[in-house]
Amino acid sequence: MLSISGLSTRLAALNPATGGVYSTADLSVLLERSHPSRLTEAVRLLIREGVLARVRRGLYADCLHGYRSEYVGQRWVSPSYLSTETALDRHGLCETGIVPYTYVTTRILGSRTAARRRLHAHEFVYRHVDSRLFFGYESSDGVLLAHPEKAALDFLYFCHKGQRSVLSPEDVRFSRLNGLRYRRYLRRYRQRGFSDFALRWLSRKGGRR
Are residues 177 and 79 in the same domain? Predict the structure, then answer.
């Protein structure tokens, strides 16, 4: 196996492209270990040495050169995209002042513990939607991020369902949204009660047409 210094050089070269997050297949190439048992032994050693941190089975984070928390969160539960509070904050639609990264996923997470996860000082929160509502996002610097209008609708959708948040709809700057896109996305929810709720907030806050 490569020395720690040799591995550090390889990790540093790959870090920008991977966000400091590696799969078992990535590590097999990096560590020059194709046999499963030898690879497992090598990875365990690197975890003990503090070189890697285990995110979940088959996924590891680079502790030598750091990792992008958004990458970790997106790959920890897949498919998922950043939305609700985190995306609203990134689009300048609110000021959360909160630490967790908030994601929307089609994965069904069976418990509250599974839906809220932590790695070092980083917290990740996942909320479930049906596959038909998994849209309205794009890649931003390698991370899937909800469009402003979808982030607002996702946020209101979970508020309407009674899920708790540090934010209130009053905190969201609906006036900065594109009203046409907002309404187009809203039609895909096909829920009359929620549609009325979401349109009230748009009209109340004066979204752009």
Answer: yes
